[in-house]
Amino acid sequence: MKLHHVIESQQFTVPTLMELFNLADSMEHIVARGGTGDYSNRIMALLFYEHSTRTRFSFESAMARLGGKILATESANQFSSVMHGETLEDTVRVVNNYSDVIVIRHNEVGGAARAAAVSSIPVINAGDGKGGQHPTQALLDLYTIHREIKTIDGVRIAMVGNLADGRTVRSLAYLLGKFDRVKLYFIAPKALQMKQDIIDYLQHHEVWFTEEEDLRKIINEVDVVYMTRLEPVQREGVDPTHFYMDGPLMRYLPKKSIVMHPLPRANEISPEVDADPRAAYFRQTRNGILVRMALLASVLEG
Ligand code: CP
After folding, report:
1. What digits encode the pLDDT tens for the residues 194-217?
2. Residue 202 needs a FRET pair 20 to 30 A away by CA distance; which of 12, 98, 194, 254 works?
3. Distance between CA atoms of residues 121 and 127, nearest Å
4. Ligand 1 centroid to 204 CA: how many Å?
5. The domain 9-133+287-301 is classified under which CATH number: 3.40.640.10, 3.10.129.10, 1.10.287.1080, 3.40.50.1370?
6. Residue with the nearest Cα to atom 1 of ligand 1?
7. In this structure, which CATH number among 3.40.50.720, 3.40.50.1370, 3.40.640.10, 3.30.70.1350 belongs to the domain 135-284?
8. How many CB atoms lie within 10 A of CB 99?
9. How far is the CA of 263 from the centre of ligand 1 (A)?
């Protein structure tokens, strides 16, 4: 399987997604035997202009398990030549000479696309701006649904929190819109509901969705509850219990449903939920290694 740039969820087709997931499955064997040396002559550059724990470490771990080497700059806005006024484009042109793939998290929507426009090596978007996209998170989220619910067609998913700015839910909505009979429940304060570009996309593809303001109203109707953060300022004037998962509410979630979260969480999931087998958010992070190994292998073959 060959991929080049990975910039937004819309670029994927269902057959490509299934091929990627099969490759991710096969990566489990490589992880179990402690990795491979197959990519020992390949170098990944990480350009992170924003903080990260999971995305950065899981890409590093994925490349290490493939046997490749890693160049990384943390807080690139402070610790790279951006401090001297270097443009993103110039940085990317230079890093093209040092590595075989660039993984970039940028503070502006469209940052990864700008990088890809001047890059002859693959660029992977690790999150761009507030309200941009985070396609690799969405791919590992979809892979988690595929593994745990066993089907993506027909899945019913509640996305909860700040949907207007949340790049993970935005990318995941685009991916889910490619499957049949999916039902999307958008649970957010009115001011933080899904933006029009997603609504237009879903309407164009005749995907069922509804907008609600209280998770408790639909908890017993869904296969997946995908929680995201509401910042303290976004909680002002709203009832936080409408966007909160705790032990008592878990009693209404169907037995085979799961709770997901891209993490980091703030206080939208009570720690008492962690011990429930339906809490899938730490398994998601494990799946992220497999999916990112598959992505790296695909772009390095491309
Ligand atoms: N889920 C996610 O993107 O986490 P990080 O910000 O820690 O990378």
Report:
1. 999 999 999 999 999 999 999 999
2. 254
3. 18
4. 30
5. 3.40.50.1370
6. 262
7. 3.40.50.1370
8. 20
9. 6
